[in-house]
């Protein structure tokens, strides 16, 4: 790994632009994690392209010393798809937020995933519209009080993982802004993965939705309220590593158990991110505090052919078989006559 | 072949095939057109079909027609009125008999004139000839269905397949009337139904049965002789506007040395461009059927950012959806071509009918000061030329270009003298040099004001672009008021400078006089035919037809000032006339407008022009 990039560091990926996110915003940490992840990937600096839509997080490309495109609201998935299909050699990253990807851009988001275009979609989820100053988003919790829901929302939020798996997603991971090391590891995994990889990063908006994820970042309790999944390892968590997950086969759902007399580590589920059947992955992605620990790490990572590979392959195969070598051949094909 | 009693020599003839939308009228018309082209006629076709795939059988709403105009002179329109109408059912008769010339011939499938069929078509009596006063036409009642059945009774086909070939009986009759050979159509059957000898045999049998029937009944139908056209020597093929558009882009990609990307969403009547480009993977085209219109253009903008020649195809409602993204391409100064095959609007409007009512949308239908180049094709075959031009301008001037065609050009076809790609110019996009330390994203060349194009993957040219206002050189975000004014001016000036690279406006006819007819886009054939007819009769009339809308050709004022009257003719309420009033306010513009989802007729144009000349 890192044959090409071994001389570059995270600093090389910082642009000369002043970073204008609010002090204390979770975006700073996420960007740090990405800038640390890039030198670990086997990709030349000029081959990275960062594409974003509109929103606080979408300012991201300006701060990166890579090719970048800050586009229009909701359309980053479509633009990133075009970039990747046009040049499959590029490492294409989409930076988006819960409003950009789940609301106005929902259609492009699900189709990019369904097609399995090799784009790394980093979804900053702060459960609020920040750039427009505090309206609820499609991921705001039911009942959230915001400027456009002064009496509480009456709509149920999207859970990005559920949507990704519903759209036949092959890669889904979750991190939280406060865990820079975990985020960096996940971004490296996403960057290496061939296909549409969605990383949901729980992000704090210090101004309009402060502490929305506080229960999960709380120093005292976070280890009891979250579980970091690792492929091939048992699903164990807790400050004292005394809790775990088993499959309640009778009710077909996950169950939190205390390790001790009744259950030992051997009874716990072993995480298999590569399992094609999305059943357990969906259950893991849908675990919510306080009933369950919230799952972090790579929840699903299944190999499959990517759209961009398939297009390139098809074009090459058909071109090889075709008798047309240039436009003149095409114009003179079929029925013609002399005058 | 029997000697024909009454052969009429004609310079040109219009034939219309009309039937239920399942009767195969489009194929019948196409086969007649192909045969006419092979024997050397010039021609122009116009398919006219309902937007429903299978509208209720036997009703007026389900009538599908195909009109073809063949001649021994240059043919520029599918013709106003038909010399011969083939009506396969009462609804076709009811809907189209008004489009037959007085004294023209109407061939009707007699078997279809039953009580049920007549009622469905809206006839109140059992005699449609009398009811619609069709006795001014030469009516031929031919038992097409029953003779088709009779011809195929021993072929072992099921009744449905037998009836489906009745269109070939009608085609056979028309071939006799025009003394056309059957072999081109027979070859078509052999190719199309390669491994189905039974189907080949059945079609050939019915075609010949129709031909022989007409010969036997020769006293009923006059026959026509239309000699080959005197047209420029060369190799010819038939081509429709949509195919020509697709091929024009492929040609441009070849000349630019770039790969072609088309992100699009299916929409009538533009879909064939996407379909054809999807087939053309054999020439390396990357087609992307997007999830919606917005994704169509956004994938194209992404592909353009990544260094492809990127196009997207649509029709009016889709152009509305693409508006915001076109603005992004304006701001990021990326080359992208947006084809709008116009149809009747507003809203869903008349999806299969042509109109020119998206001109203002193309020019101004975006937020902010958002100038783009707008050009329009004017014949089915020159869609190739203008698609090529659109791509050339987009790439060399680093700007989005909207190419306007319409349903009439898109579906219409005509013989096309096949060009050689060596006669076409190279396209030189201003691509940046890898490793160029002095490169700036928004530095531009003095002549065109085009910025240079640095493509992801190029070393040391990493940069950011986006929809926020740009610093005039670095391209970084700038909210500076003076910089914004400057950038607004530059973007407009960049588009206006294209006028230095396009041909001047030409005048068909004298360069000064009483009346100048002005048109743009798909109305060219009808306007040119009407103007030429009147010029031949000695009228003081000329035509100036526009293909370049924004910017306008540089010599517009020079052309306009030499005429007493200017009449702007459009299939809309006067959008181009208004645009001319704004850009060239010193002239008075009369208008002639028609918004019926139908092309002009040359007759109505001539009547109107005569009035203007008399005033």
Characterise the protein shown here:
The complex is a heterodimer of chains A (339) and B (615). With 339 residues, chain A is α/β, with parallel strands linked by helices. Chain A has two domains: 10-233 and 271-306, 3-Layer(aba) Sandwich (Rossmann fold), CATH 3.40.50.970; 237-268, no CATH class. Chain A contains eleven helices and twelve strands. Chain A has helices spanning 27-37, 76-86, 98-104, 106-115, 160-166, 180-192, 214-217, 222-225, 279-285, 307-321, 327-331; strands at 48-52, 67-70, 91-97, 119-125, 171-176, 197-202, 226-229, 236-237, 243-248, 253-258, 294-301, 337-338. In chain A, strands 2-1-3-4-6-5-11-7 form an eight-stranded mixed β-sheet, with helices on both faces. The model of chain A has no long low-confidence stretch (mean pLDDT 96). Chain B is of the alpha/beta class and 615 residues long. Chain B is built from 21 helices and 23 strands. In chain B, strand 10 (260-264), helix 11 (271-279) and strand 11 (286-289) form a beta-alpha-beta unit. Classes of the chains: A alpha/beta (339), B alpha/beta (615). At the A-B interface, strand 1, strand 2, helix 2, helix 4 and helix 10 of A face helix 1, strand 9, helix 10, helix 12 and helix 13 of B. Strand 2 (67-70) of chain A pairs parallel with strand 17 (464-466) of chain B, so a sheet runs across the interface.
The biggest chain-chain interface is:
A-B, 56 and 70 residues
Number of helices of chain B: 21
Strand line-up of the largest beta sheet of chain A: 2-1-3-4-6-5-11-7
| Highest CATH level, the class of the largest domain in chain B | Alpha Beta
Note the beta-strand portion of chain B. 15-25%
Helix content of chain B: 25-40%
Point out poorly predicted stretches of chain B. 1-5
Superfamily at the CATH H level of the largest domain in chain A?
Thiamin diphosphate (ThDP)-binding fold, Pyr/PP domains
Shape of chain B: globular
Structural class of chain B: alpha/beta
Report, as a whole number of angstroms, the end-to-end distance of chain B.
Answer: 54 Å
- What is the number of helical segments of chain A per DSSP (H or I, 4+ residues)? 11
Question: Roughly how many Å is the radius of gyration of chain B?
Answer: 26 Å
Strand order of the largest sheet of chain B: 11-10-12-13-15-14-21
